[in-house]
Design goal:
Layout: E1 2-7, E2 13-18, E3 21-27, H1 29-32, E4 40-43, E5 48-51, H2 55-65, E6 74-78, H3 85-92, E7 101-102, H4 109-119, E8 125-131, E9 137-138, E10 143-153, E11 156-166, E12 171-172, H5 174-184, E13 188-190, E14 203-205, H6 207-213, E15 228-230, E16 233-237, H7 238-252, H8 267-295, E17 299-303, H9 310-319, E18 324-327, H10 336-348, H11 368-378, E19 383-386, H12 389-397, E20 402-405, E21 419-423, H13 430-438, E22 448-452, E23 496-498, H14 504-517, E24 521-526, H15 538-547, E25 552-555, E26 558-561
Parallel strand pairs: 1-6, 6-7, 8-17, 17-18, 20-25, 22-23
Antiparallel strand pairs: 1-2, 2-3, 4-5, 8-10, 9-10, 10-11, 12-16, 13-14, 15-16, 19-26, 20-21, 21-24, 22-24, 25-26
Helix pairs in contact: 4-10, 5-8, 8-9, 11-15, 12-14
Amino acid sequence: MYVLGINLSHDRAACLIEDGRIVAAVEEERLDRLKHSEGFIIHGHFEKLSKVLPMKAVTYCLDAAGIGIDDVDVVVGNRPLGDEARDRILRELPIRDKSKIHSLPMPSHHLTHAYAGYLASPFEDAAVLVVDGVGSKVPGTGRIEKHTIFDGEGTSLQRVHAETFPEDWSEVGLGLFYSFFSAKLGFVTRWGHPTFGDFGCGGYTEAGKTMGLAPYGQPRPEWQRLLTVKEGNVVVRTEDMENAWDAWYAADGGGYDAKQKGSWQHQFAKDVAYKIQTETEEAMLELARYAHEVTGRSKLCLTGGVALNSVANQRIVAEGPFDEVYILPPAGDAGTAIGAAYYGYYAVAGGTERHPMRSGATGRSYSEQEIEAAVREAGEQVESRRATIAEVAGLLAEHRLVGWFQGGSEIGPRALGHRSMLADPRHPEVRDYLNEVVKHREVFRPFAPSVLSEEADSWFDMHGDSPFMLLVPEVLESRRDQVPAITHVDGTARVQTVEPDVNPRYHELISRFAELTGVPLVLNTSYNDAGEPIVETPADAVRTFLNTELDHLYIGDLLLTKPGRELSDRHPSRQPLA
């Protein structure tokens, strides 16, 4: 049985499952190369916006299975607020039998997140905590989903606690709380009209930057507490956020201008990030404790966009009451394509098979012929030869920067060893070089380590595995000087643990690197330049290789270099380790 799930929110995506197993899932942005890929058709001067289906993603999934749209048995879509995804799918999806198209019961958005987070997990029962920015409108109430707790058992979910905020946004939840201050700090991907987006910020807020900047800040006890957390609810008034910002800025923001390049360097920006991150962590930890209280479960599934806050996740894992925690790799709205598909299979079709999602690599693999065609298209701009994984490990050990394109792409915002830029974590100059010269982004932003799962405890203060790079443990103090490129200013790192049976080629690479250096981890960042989606196809990978200061690209079994290229004096390999 084939079930197609479609996300019509931001980060549009599609997922195809067969008998409970994900065949393919991909975000539209990877294919149309438009960050977040909203899919709006604009009428007039933004007077009306119409959504279109992510047809590139739908076609991609169908092609991966070798089927046509009429071979699909069930179709389910979702979007937040009023939903209306089914109406859009009925109009636009060229499937003959329209009775195959279904919708979730309202309020639907958090339920879709919950299906994704729980049914992808290995748990037979669990509490499910959904926390995001904007959920569904709750019919007849004039309110919107804020965060929801579900109880999962077998293949069913029951809503046990739900909180909402008013449609006028006079009060909001954690996701919008974080967005408000991220926007004030100027962390926004610009899109569309200058007043588009949360709080009229002009695009999509970049919460990850706020999280990365927070450790540079200091506690400001004189700044008022904004979040009230009590009995499973988190309350913050929009007016209070606005007044707090104005008061803080008046007292401490002299000379700060978020529109200026490098404004993050002002201590005021760092302290705001610290304040917002700290309150978010504490609120998420309390919500997790309340989820344990009302469900009595020993395991937790965490999902919704706020579950991408890996520092808060770490506190839940380390300090919370649960024995095990599973966090879906595409915890944001891209993951609702998976949730919609699971709802179609389990709730609509009555499916029973479970296949836990152990890898975030839900994309299709590309053939040797497709890779070679992309290399030929580059002509004399590249030289290529066949190379072994051991040779690539040797290049990393020599402080070279390598693009790594292997197997199917990952869904979600993290590169997990399939579409990655890799570097030597031992070199103290690698972080700034990668940020400034290769990825053209702020130098404060940290990089993640991918570590052999069997060695993780020897390098990090782990509390279980972290396969999806969604936890931030401390780097052991005795190890920090050995891996400065992945150690953040507060001594932490956003860790990915790598299992040999989940990603054997990547595990082999790190193992070979460990043989050469004694360090069983590599620096891993997403394969993309600033402002663009992670690469999907071989052609994307070659183009980004040519447009950035990467030294090599290992794609399939081919190693690409740029003929005649000379390394700058700033290149890490020009500054050997002592």
